[in-house]
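Worked example 2:
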Amino acid sequence: MEERKRCVLGFLLLFFTLLRDLSALSITVNDVECVYEYVLYEGDTISGNFVVVDHDIFWGSDHPGIDMIVTSPGGNTVHTLKGTSGDKFEFKAPRSGMYKFCFHNSYSTPETVSFYIHVGHIPNEHDLAKDEHLDPINVKIAELREALESVTAEQRYLRARDYRHRRTNESTRKRVIFYTVGEYILLAVASGLQVAYIRRLFSKSVAYNRV
């Protein structure tokens, strides 16, 4: 009974901790921008996602996209994503230390990138053997934490894409209004010119008949 209470309390604590903040970070990428994440244990799972916020508004068919390159503490490239407007990623850390996540923008226009990075660690049998205070209940809690983190990451990714789509819809609506108003103005100007031209023709005809 006591272990069950500890498991339930741990689950609730993890649930409210993970769902407390669903917002992702954002950076503006002019050429190359890098962020860093420290990994404590070799073999930890590094996961996350990123979305180019203004992709649907300003990108043409010839846009090369955004590249993401992940570099290990030893300077080796461990993961890459090429020419995309956003994607998810997941890989195992080959070693502990500071990892570098660099976003490359080869286009001349700055891009706003919303991103999220998570480092997950689940104790294994080797950890249990080394740490006498680490019991199977804590392992289960860690597994639940990572499962909830996966759901949270998916929510962040969907929220970023939804935000991008809302910006696209808003931009499209403004452009439609602008073009519609422009058409009405051009139509009014054309109608005014036609009226002025017809009046001028009639005035010349009347003057000719008087002569």
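The beta strands are 25-29, 32-39, 45-52, 66-71, 77-84, 86-92, 97-105, 111-120. The helical segments are 2-18, 55-58, 125-130, 136-210.
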